[in-house]
TrEMBL record:
Residues 8-132 form the ApaG domain. This is Co2+/Mg2+ efflux protein ApaG. PROSITE patterns: APAG. Pfam families: DUF525. InterPro entries: ApaG-like (IPR050718), ApaG_domain (IPR007474), ApaG_sf (IPR036767). Gene3D superfamilies: ApaG domain (2.60.40.1470). It comes from the Bacteria.
C-alpha cells in the first residue's frame, strides 16, 4: 500500500510530512480508547547536515485537554540527515476521545552546532463514526 502524506510543513528547506491512520483493531471505543498510527517523513532539502535532537508534541483531545510530550529524538533514534536525505518513522497516539489533533516541532542541530526548530504540521485524529 502506497502511503499518502496528507499533511506537510516546511521550515528552512526541511520538510516534515505526516500520514495518519485510525487503527480500529487497537481501539476499544466501548472502553473509551481510540488509537491512531502516524508515519512521519523528514526530508532534508537544505545545504546543511542536520541531526534530530528533540521533539515536542502538542496533543489535544475532543474535550480540549492538551498533553505536551517532549523527549530526545524519535522512537529511540537521533538520525543525522545529509543534504538530500530523508528519515521515516512510525509511531502511535492513543486518546480517550474519538477525535483530537497533533502538532509540534523537532529541534535539529546544524553542522555549526546551532539549533533549528522545524515545525511538525497540524493533523487531525478522527475515528470513523460507528453505528450504535
Amino acid at each position: 500500500m502506497k502511503e499518502l502524506f496528507q499533511h506537510c510543513a516546511i521550515t528552512e528547506d526541511i520538510a516534515v510530512r505526516v500520514a495518519v491512520n485510525f487503527l480500529p483493531e487497537q481501539s476499544q471505543p466501548e472502553s473509551g480508547k481510540w488509537f491512531w498510527v502516524y508515519h512521519v517523513r523528514i526530508e532534508n532539502d537544505s545545504d546543511d547536515t542536520i541531526q534530530l535532537k528533540t521533539r515536542h508534541w502538542r496533543i489535544t483531545d475532543a474535550r480540549g485537554m492538551v498533553n505536551h510530550v517532549d523527549g530526545e529524538g524519535v522512537v529511540g533514534e537521533t538520525p543525522t540527515l545529509n543534504p538530500g536525505q530523508t528519515h521515516d518513522y512510525v509511531s502511535g497516539c492513543p486518546l480517550t476521545t474519538p477525535s483530537g489533533s497533533m502538532e509540534g516541532f523537532f529541534t535539529f542541530g546544524l553542522t555549526d552546532g546551532s539549533p533549528l526548530e522545524v515545525r511538525i504540521p497540524y493533523f487531525p485524529l478522527s475515528a470513523p463514526a460507528t453505528a450504535n
